[in-house]
Amino acid sequence: MTEPSPATPLPDHRQDAGYFRFLERTGVDWDAWWEVLCGRVAGAIFRGALTPEVCERTCRRFWSSPLLSSPNTTRGTERAVGPLLLASDTLDGYLTESERTRTGLAEICGGPGRTLPALLDEWQTYLADRGVGLRLAEHEGRTAGSFKIRSRADSESFGLLPHDDAMHNWGLPHLLDFEIQGVKHVCNTLLCLENGPGGELVYWNAAFGPEDRRALGMRPDSYGYPLEALSGVERITLPIHAGDMYMFDGGNVHAVAASGTADVHRTMALWITGQLDDGTILQWA
Predict the structure, then answer these.
(1) What are the phi and psi torsion angles at 135 (to 5°)?
(2) CATH topology for 22-284?
């Protein structure tokens, strides 16, 4: 992916204080997740959604998995199991990787206790009680990945540069036939499995559209907003600990703060959901 050209700051794309906030809960609160999914509040975080025992077991299996790979040659610390749509060159390649890793991911995250698959089952039941179906996004009879596990160890200024996920889902040419194009509001969800003292979520009160990106000299595949475009923009810095699950409006610019050391891994399970119609929520990774 290309780096953006230097550019001047853009006009604010701000949301009001009632929206631009995170609901914080101890334990899982499906009603709060629903508020984020419906676009009524920017984000929510559930502290201690997974126990330390489940996090430790999942990480141990992740690091010993034969599926573990280094998908990003520009980031030597990255390790992952599972597909990532925005990093795939083709839709076919993404779907193939989804199929190849589906069983392995289930084995990594399964077992006794309240695991990630158990949480997703609870979420599906909650939605069904509201008359809403949750399913994996599909293309020509093939299904997307339900989630991915990714780990990084960074001591740079950002573990992940300021970016958004909505513009990529709607703008990359090889995704134009994928049914996620019918989703107009994307909700990122992450589950922290291990983290050090840094690696906070940094979340700006800014959402840029295609014209804004062009004004910044960015192409559809450009990654990373220039910091000068975010100068003076309100932001939330949210500490993230092992066991926390959090979700947020993926259309807003967000980043991962530096860990401060190359010896600490920030390992996350992550996926995206969005409302296709009144009765259908799509999920993909």
Answers:
(1) -145, 160
(2) Jelly Rolls (2.60.120)
Contacts with 145 (C-beta within 8 Å, 6 or more apart), sequence order: 82, 83, 85, 94, 97, 98, 101, 102, 105, 136, 271, 284, 285
- Partners of 158 in the β-ladder: 257
Token output for 96: 């193939």
Structure tokens at 218: 């960015």
The span from the CA of 171 to the CA of 166, in Å, is 8
Residue labelled with tokens 């190359």: 262
Work out the widest C-alpha separation in the chain, in whole angstroms: 52
Kindly report, residue by residue over 26-47, the tens digit of the pLDDT: 999 999 999 999 999 999 999 9
CA angle 155, 152, 224 (to 5 degrees): 75
Q: Supply 81's token pair.
A: 């199991």
148 and 190 Cβ atoms separated by less than 8 Å: no
Structure tokens at 66: 């034969």
How many C-beta neighbours within 10 Å does residue 176 have?
10
Instruction: Kindly report the backbone phi and psi dihedral angles of residue 80, in degrees, each rounded to the nearest multiple of 5, phi listed first.
Output: -155, 155
**How many other CB atoms are there within 10 angstroms of residue 26's CB atom?**
9
CA atoms within 13 A on the CB side of 160: 22
Contact 254, 201 (CB under 8 A): yes
pTM check: above 0.85:
yes
Measuring CA to CA, which residue among 129, 222, 128 is closest to residue 168?
222
Closest CA to 231 of 212, 205, 210: 205
Residue-wise pLDDT tens digits, 119-164: 999 999 999 999 999 999 999 999 999 999 999 876 667 778 888 8
Quote the pLDDT of residue 85: 85
